[in-house]
Request: fold
Amino acid sequence: MTTPRPSARAHERLIQRLAEQVGVPAAVSWAHAAAVTHHCVRHRLVSAPEPPNSPDSVRRVLTELASAQPDLAGFLDPQIVPLWTAPLSMDSWAELHDFWGPGDLLDDGPHRVDGYPLGDAYQALSADARKSRALCQTPPWIAKLLLELSLEPATDEVGPQNVRMTDPACGTGHILLQAFHDARVYRRRGRTPGPHLGREASIERALQTVSGCDLDPYAALLARYRLLATSASIRQGRIDQLPRTWTAQVACADSLLDRNEPLLERGRYHAVVSNPPYITVADAQQRDLIRKAYPRVAAGKFSLALPFCELMFSLATPGGHVAQLTSNSFMKREFGRRFIEEFLPEFDMRWVIDTSGAYIPGHGTPTVILVHRVRPPQGDTVITIRGAKGEPFIPEDPARGKVWTAIAEAVHTRLAMDRLKDALTSLHDVA
Reply:
């Protein structure tokens, strides 16, 4: 029997009580570090034999993680993980220990170490990450569809050894983890498979394929941890047994304004996939900097979704694939006029999918999926999936909600038709 996960309100109450002793940032840090420690020990990713039973045991596991791989050194940085400067009493620890219980709340399911519940837990625990940095996780079933429409055709075109994908607003790595798995087990549809890669080579290839950036230093650290934890699990070993040359390519950076971060090099990626932030910027100085950097799309009281869209196009190679789940507010408000009339017509729009009626946990903003290729329009047809009704009730499994199921079936039907058409064309050309 699956233990129900704590509600958003339960996470909030936990932080309020811990914060009475150590303050809010350290409370979030202690709460989530305990979750990471449970995850490590439960999946035998560190040498510790037992789940954490004291604040010191949490710190010991974090120390082991930080020394296991250079990418995880941030677990010892008090600027990223504030628990190092805020001791926790045993009374507070007892409450935290009871909250996570034996750790089964953090499982992805049998034999899965991807850490999706870890990412969701950080979003639930940190109000600052949600409000100030617009952290909002992308459910894996949405990530999978976005990648089917972008990374998969990009890989078909340039080959699995060459393809590069990025998410410039990666959060804790939900899209990156799905891309990692897709890259590791890639098989081109309808074609004879290439040489079979062994386990080691397939993991290394996947790590080389995916990359991301996020403004939140802890979210970026957690995304790196999840990629390396998954890699270690596939190898059936600990994180410290991974080759030191393997790197989780995730940086902490202001993707919109940082021009020095190597992972934000323009024109580098064959697929750019994201669920960018939709908020408006409250800080006037920051807003002016973004408006100056993206004058073509940042008009009026713009949503960050628009400059992120321009950024995504600039990160892609010529002809690259761009897929995003984004707010549809630009379709209904004045700040989107220039974006719709002047910017978007320069690019090859492939799909417009209305997801405003689908139930997406944590997403209160009406959304749309946009898929483009970074090239001039190739004809006058765009594939659209329009919503007729919203969900009649909140589905028990959001991935199987009536609206999302209809969307996914429509997409897959169209993709199957396109593949059949391509196959018939190839046969005709051979004949």
